[in-house]
From TrEMBL:
<feature type="transmembrane region" description="Helical">
    <location>
        <begin position="15"/>
        <end position="36"/>
    </location>
</feature>
<keyword id="KW-1003">Cell membrane</keyword>
<feature type="transmembrane region" description="Helical">
    <location>
        <begin position="48"/>
        <end position="68"/>
    </location>
</feature>
<dbReference type="Pfam" id="PF01943">
    <property type="entry name" value="Polysacc_synt"/>
</dbReference>
<keyword id="KW-1133">Transmembrane helix</keyword>
<feature type="transmembrane region" description="Helical">
    <location>
        <begin position="323"/>
        <end position="345"/>
    </location>
</feature>
<feature type="transmembrane region" description="Helical">
    <location>
        <begin position="80"/>
        <end position="110"/>
    </location>
</feature>
<dbReference type="GO" id="GO:0005886">
    <property type="term" value="C:plasma membrane"/>
</dbReference>
<feature type="transmembrane region" description="Helical">
    <location>
        <begin position="122"/>
        <end position="140"/>
    </location>
</feature>
<feature type="transmembrane region" description="Helical">
    <location>
        <begin position="384"/>
        <end position="409"/>
    </location>
</feature>
<dbReference type="InterPro" id="IPR050833">
    <property type="entry name" value="Poly_Biosynth_Transport"/>
</dbReference>
<keyword id="KW-0472">Membrane</keyword>
<protein>
    <submittedName>
        <fullName>Putative membrane protein</fullName>
    </submittedName>
</protein>
<feature type="transmembrane region" description="Helical">
    <location>
        <begin position="290"/>
        <end position="317"/>
    </location>
</feature>
<feature type="transmembrane region" description="Helical">
    <location>
        <begin position="174"/>
        <end position="194"/>
    </location>
</feature>
<keyword id="KW-0812">Transmembrane</keyword>
<feature type="transmembrane region" description="Helical">
    <location>
        <begin position="357"/>
        <end position="378"/>
    </location>
</feature>
Length: 427
């Protein structure tokens, strides 16, 4: 009975994560065609630059708690006092990080001539992402109650989408996008902490400095992995902003990246729902069956996108974005490997005791991406196509690294079992 109950919980969480992800993506797809036409490629490109920087802010503010915090909640699920101290300790750490990040990023905006003119635009984005970082999503992931997060996000996204269509009327209104995001995240934060207190008995309480320090130390390896992943994934937009300035190419790349992100949107909920389940059950056959069933569909779908890339970009973003088709083609290998890359990482490698290699894989990816970009710069081959191809190479290498780690571990286990069997037979 216990196994069936866990299976139902896994299916429920997966369903709500997919509902959350696809509804969010649906809202995004509803606004992207509107914003690309209203703002134009140049102004819309600014949102891409802002979001690239904010991806760093989000990872720094999270500090790996979405993974380490989830693991701690799974291990102390019924200890309300421990969970309360954990949530309060994480909030304190993030408060201090928020002050540091705000000071550094504000100084950076003021020193950057391309961003100084749009100070409030970038500052509102910064505030929105800092506020969002205080949401204790790791708790709901750990107790496998994704329904709460899903309903909260759906409500906020609905309000955000409606306000975009009502308030953003031309390219002068672009600063309203981060402001609306900030207000939505603040509302979500209030709702979340009210739910924690009312339904789960979580209250603010003091944690000792030693407890806070221990929580920080435990999350740092996960943080190193996530920041490395973000470096090589978000670096492209920042480099392109220096190479092309305010060229429409930034808008083309930002728009195409939305399509590539869709593959991550499909893969992430599955990996996220499997992570706490796999920590307890170690049901690796389920992962294997998932990959066998889904990979043929992914490969065929990618081939179709390759053939009709130009038409897809025109349909989604407008005729101005026809040139984005070739950019999309350069990024398609990422779509092929993203699901197995996600599933092999924390849902498989952490339960196997390979968390060190799971974290290391992103650091390896960052190294490959940076070395590749340096080579492109010094050989004067830096352009939007070479950067996208380099990103595809990086993602494939990260996948191969994780696959190799799992296969080597599996081979070692087989050898240990063989020798143990041999010794028992002899004795």
């Amino acid at each position: 009975m216990g196994g069936k109950k866990l299976d139902k919980t896994l299916l429920s969480n997966t369903f709500f994560l997919y509902l959350l992800t696809f509804s969010s993506r649906l809202f995004s797809l509803a606004t992207v065609p509107y914003l690309t036409r209203i703002l134009g490629a140049v102004t819309y490109g600014k949102t891409g630059i802002a979001l690239a920087y904010m991806s760093y802010v989000a990872i720094i503010m999270d500090l790996g708690f979405i993974l380490s915090g989830t693991q701690k909640v799974v291990n102390h699920k019924n200890d309300i006092l421990y969970i309360s101290k954990l949530i309060c300790s994480v909030a304190l750490i993030k408060f201090l990080l928020g002050i540091l990040v705000s000071a550094i990023f504000t100084a950076y905006i003021l020193c950057n001539p391309n961003m100084r003119y749009d100070f409030w635009f970038y500052f509102f984005y910064l505030a929105a992402f800092i506020v969002n970082a205080f949401l204790p999503d790791f708790y709901y992931r750990g107790i496998e109650k994704m329904k709460v997060i899903t309903y909260r996000t759906l409500a906020v996204k609905t309000i955000f989408t409606v306000l975009i269509f009502i308030l953003v009327k031309d390219d002068r209104d672009y600063w309203l996008i981060p402001l609306i995001t900030l207000l939505g995240n603040a509302l979500a934060l209030i709702i979340m902490y009210y739910d924690l207190k009312k339904n789960y008995g979580i209250r603010f309480c003091r944690a000792s400095l030693s407890e806070v320090w221990q929580i920080t130390k435990d999350t740092l390896p996960f943080f190193a992995s996530r920041i490395a992943s973000t470096v090589y994934q978000a670096l492209n937009t920042i480099i392109l902003s220096f190479v092309y300035g305010n060229s429409p190419i930034i808008g083309y790349y930002t728009s195409v990246d939305k399509i590539v992100s869709l593959s991550k949107t499909v893969s992430s909920p599955l990996a996220d729902s499997l992570y706490p389940y796999m920590l307890r059950e170690k049901d690796f056959k389920t992962v294997k069956r998932l990959l066998i069933k889904t990979m043929p569909v992914i490969i065929i779908g990618t081939l179709i996108i390759f053939i009709y890339a130009k038409l897809l970009c025109i349909f989604l973003f407008g005729r101005e974005y026809a040139s984005a088709g070739n950019i999309l083609r350069c990024l398609l290998p990422i779509i092929v490997v993203i699901l197995p890359t996600y599933l092999l990482c924390f849902p498989v490698m952490v339960p196997l005791g390979l968390s060190k290699y799971a974290n290391m894989s992103n650091i390896v990816g960052m190294g490959i991406q940076i070395i590749g970009l340096v080579i492109l710069i010094f050989t004067d081959n830096i352009n939007v196509y070479s950067i996208c191809i380099m990103s595809s190479v990086t993602e494939v290498c990260v996948f191969l690294f994780r696959l190799a780690a799992v296969l080597v571990y599996r081979q070692r286990i087989r050898h240990k079992r063989y020798f143990r069997y041999t010794e028992n037979s002899i004795s």
